[in-house]
């Protein structure tokens, strides 16, 4: 279920050097073979083609369901060869218009002409939590708007619909041509800001320059932005996450992980002519099924040095930090029922992240899997060495990236803690206000990327969100962060001294929460509109804290960007050229939170020598019900048992290649009908961040028949059913 691209503010967010390759990584490669026939050739730009060798054995993808493909380069002929049918351009265009992106790391689909969007419950759980309050717990009780007037606006929620993609590779490359590694990132950031500003002609337009193929291509993605999003339906958490953490990333499953929200424009439901319809029958065995969504990040082209860093440093430290936070939140929830309610969403996200990182770690410590990655790199480097023109172009790229990885080990703690740790809602607001005062007066192309003009609508939505902020939880989060900062960096670290002075983490955290006025939206607006002068005059203790440590955070960020990020990015482009030359036109770019299409079929797998059937039935949920968490069905479900058909399909698995960010993606058949809703992967899919294993990598979906039956017989959601039918 829990294939969120990013979890809550708690998730320990070191941005590793390995992650720099996000958005530019091709798939894992089998041994060299002839190029795959009938594969749609992506436009790789002029530079890769110029260094491609005239002859030699090109590498290619295996003949399986691997790949998160861009719509403009979808391998329809390959799908037809494997599954007997391939989509037309018209089919692809329609599906791409009906799939939408939830800006905080999920996917969704438009399912009515009036802006109704289907996604996962866990993708809207933050909105549901924010709309809840003491005595009105929509997470536990669920929510259904029986009329348009009852549809509740989510405090800070954005959904984006893709309207166009433009190749801007030549423009980005020209801006960075000849730039030394220390200036590479700054020049690239500047030209991206200019391109995005030219594109974003109003607040209703969002534009992102996206790195594909590790710098082999740069595309401008233009979206229609919807910032008025309202909750229509959410089931009880116990139904959406039935089986809890024990069943998470496992199968069989019995989860009703679905929610509906609506897009509004001008205070009215948006008109959405392009929308999906539902298949009552669901997926058929032997027929192709497709997932249209926004997978957040894969790292399939990471070099061995980068993978070693992720395995040896990044994931172990994340797991340690997340485990500490899980324990703190569990204890916090024991205080009383209200504490349990307000901590539940973050605890859920942390437990999900722990399991996800554990699965990724298991892949990297698997000797066979890692040996495969080592051999892939050896083959590619040998291929480059065998072609003088290519070798001259690529040069020392792999070794340069390895040296950058070693350098990053020296500063990664300071970088992660001071610059990239997500702490609490109030901390995030204070940092954004402090930096906005410094950044916004600068020319657009000289700002930190998160403050450029194209990003300001999203920034303002977060800054002025009416979402509730809870003092006790804020104090816990701030105390945990300050304790971690002191323990990890040391008492004598200047940034620690500036943060704590003579205070204890607990004492300072309590004083910060007690003294800050940032919970008041009017105060935040005054500071934002007053700019740098207002920030400098502010006596708010949180603003003062962020001002004290901002110099340290900026310094380590600059070191990272100038001496590490730029090195990896520039040399990553060279590695990408080697991939283009060796793999020809058969590869797909790594996931970049942009719209992709994967293909597959209904299929189980073998686990510990036993077959895992691909489908569960509604009746199985009642057999699994114990009456105790996490196997306690809500009362609505128990009351509706006699109305439900026990043999109606509930959840199913398929071979589609997905990753975090695909949560909420529609599963569609060749008629373009919804047959399922992605909500999870099995435990083996977590290694899909680094490579696809056709034998056991499976995604998990909610069956369309279960959606229709439960909406009718469990929830009496006749208004939704009439709209989607």
UniProtKB/TrEMBL annotation:
Summary of the function given for this chain in its UniProt record: Catalyzes the removal of dipeptides from the N-terminus of oligopeptides.
PANTHER family: PERIPLASMIC PEPTIDASE SUBFAMILY S1B
Similarity comment text for this entry: Belongs to the peptidase S46 family.
Name assigned to this protein: Dipeptidyl-peptidase
EC number: 3.4.14.-
KW Signal (keyword) present: yes
Domain of life: Bacteria
Pfam name, any one: Peptidase_S46
UniProt feature, compositional bias: Pro residues: 29-40
Region annotation Disordered: where it falls in the sequence: 26-56
Signal peptide positions on this chain: 1-21
PROSITE patterns according to UniProt: PROKAR_LIPOPROTEIN (PS51257)
InterPro entries in the record: Pep_S46, Peptidase_S1_PA, Peptidase_S1_PA_chymotrypsin
Keywords: Aminopeptidase, Hydrolase, Protease, Serine protease, Signal
Native organism: Pendulispora albinea
